[in-house]
Amino acid sequence: MSRSQPPGFTATGTISTPKDRRRVVFATVVGTTVEWYDFFLYASAAGLVFGQLFFAPAGPGIAQILSFLTVGLSFLFRPLGAFLAGHLGDKYGRRVVLMITLVLMGASTTLIGVLPTYEVIGVAAPVLLILLRVLQGISAGGEWGGAVLMAVEHAPKTRRSLFGASPQLGVPLGLLLASGMLALMALIAPGDAFLAWGWRVPFLLSFVLILVGYYIRKKVEESPVFVEIAERKEQTRMPIVQLFRRHALLVIIAAFVFAGNNAVGYMTTGGYIQRYATNPDGPLGLATADVLGAVTLSAVSWFVFTWIGGWMGDKVGRRNTYIIGWISMIVAILALFPLVNSGSVVLLAVGLMLLTVGLGLTYGPQAALYAELFPASIRFSGVSIAYALGAILGGAFAPTIATALVDATGTTDSVTVYLVGMAALGLVATLLLRDRSGIPLGPDHEVEQTVSPVRGLSRV
User: Fold this and answer.
1) Which of 267, 306, 371, 417 could form a disulfide with 360 if both were Cys (CB 3.0 to 4.6 A apart)?
2) What are the tens digits of pLDDT across the range 123-134?
3) Rg (CA), the chain
4) How many CB atoms lie within 10 A of CB 322?
5) CB 71 within 8 A of CB 138
């Protein structure tokens, strides 16, 4: 079998020129920013307007819960997207999957922007809204694995965590863009105008962003690891079957690692804090534009600490960075609601920004951590499915659970206990894994990659 490398690649599977490396980083950041802009835009709108526009006949309280349930419902379809993308990505390559998911997400988001409300077409409105959110979930389930593997498998061995942070940066950038656009529209079209048409403009903008993202991604070469697998004709015929036959426990533990981060992160990305702080019938009743401005600031902070987390992952190891992140996160969770409940927008912003320290440190190194857990031939399936399952266990219904806990107990203390529990779960899962920083990622080292990273096990 041929051991030759495609032009421009070294024998170790990394890109040979800084220019090509910058192109990959730029493409993964832009692509994931567009994807998560669309995804978070929906979550924020679910907290701000969808309950009134699509579920109003259920009554104010139930309508808001139903609106948040549609946010969580999409997570149930992430595994489907992960299964499909994992199968295609391990057989046909990372690049083709990224093009498909980008278009699917953008089309779904744009259609939400023109969707008639319940008042216009009745029950068909929430049904169509849910259908489009499901398509977003399928796209999100397939997007992440391809983006992080393109970044990590192109990276030099000593900088995988930092390179892998590039698609992770797209998440806070997506939140920044989504919150910023909604905040801008809340200023341009305040009150009833925002409810009538202002919220639609950011959804329609997705069409333009998708064209930009597609153009940039089209210029990126396929992952060198997959190129080598394809040249040898060593693609796994049924990668998902092989994954669960040999690595089921690893998938579950990796999912728990992400679940802790995702549950806490979805207090803002899932729209809960936005709704809690702006609800006119709630304890705070803050201005929508002010709260969205605070969330936008926290997205900037999240971006910075995600980058720091990626950098630290190369310096002190993925596992150590995570442990520092979990401890920081638990401290911030304990401070979050006392700051939010102060009624001050400034203190609310401080609380959210403190939370992003731990969120960033447990998100920046995730791409490298996940990529180094799974063998090359089933890596796309492994990282995608672990991520999708972690999203279901973590963020899928976190806003709904938080809403129900406050309704049942009358206090946000119950939400604090829930979030600390999820962060502790992530910490325990992290402690169960060995740090495999720098392990060779190419197909030549499949035997070494198959040795279990789970402590106490020699082989999965």
Assistant:
1) 306
2) 999 999 999 988
3) 21
4) 31
5) no
Burial class (CB in 10 A: 0-12, 13-18, 19+), 66: buried
C-beta separation of 23 from 220 below 8 A: yes
Note the helical H segments in 190-287: 192-193, 200-218, 224-231, 239-269, 272-278
| Residue 342 C-alpha from the chain's centroid | 29
Of residues 427 and 75, which shows the higher confidence score? 427
Contacts of 224 (CB under 8 A, 6+ apart): 5, 6, 9, 13, 14, 15, 153, 154
The pLDDT tens digits for 350-384 are: 999 999 999 999 999 999 999 999 988 888 888 88
So what's the pLDDT on residue 384? 85
Backbone angles phi, psi at 263, to 5 degrees: -65, -45
**% residues pLDDT > 90 (the chain):** 32
Calculate the alpha carbon distances from 353 to 1, 153, 166, 359 in Å: 52, 31, 20, 10
Asked whether residue 450 carries a pLDDT value surpassing 60, the answer given is yes
Please tell me the distance from the alpha carbon of residue 39 to that of residue 43, in angstroms, as a whole number: 7
- Give residue-wise pLDDT tens across range 271-286: 788 888 888 888 888 8
CA distance 355 to 254: 22
Contacts of 261 (CB under 8 A, 6+ apart): 329, 359, 362, 363, 366, 394, 426
Alpha helices per DSSP H over 362-412: 366-371, 379-393, 398-409
Which of 2, 446, 443 minimizes the C-alpha distance to 224? 443
Name the residue among 265, 251, 254, 240 with its Cα closest to residue 361.
265
Q: What residue has token string 């489009």?
A: 132
What's the sign of the alpha-carbon dihedral 270, 276, 281, 287? negative
C-alpha span between 191 and 214 (Å, rounded): 35
d(CA 140, CA 102): 9
**Sign of torsion over alpha carbons 355, 359, 364, 369:** positive
SS3 percent helix, strand, coil of the chain, rounded to 5, is 80, 0, 20
Q: Kindly state the average pLDDT of the residues 317-333.
A: 96
Provide φ and ψ at 9, rounded to 5°: -115, 150
Q: Which two tokens stand for residue 401?
A: 């659970």
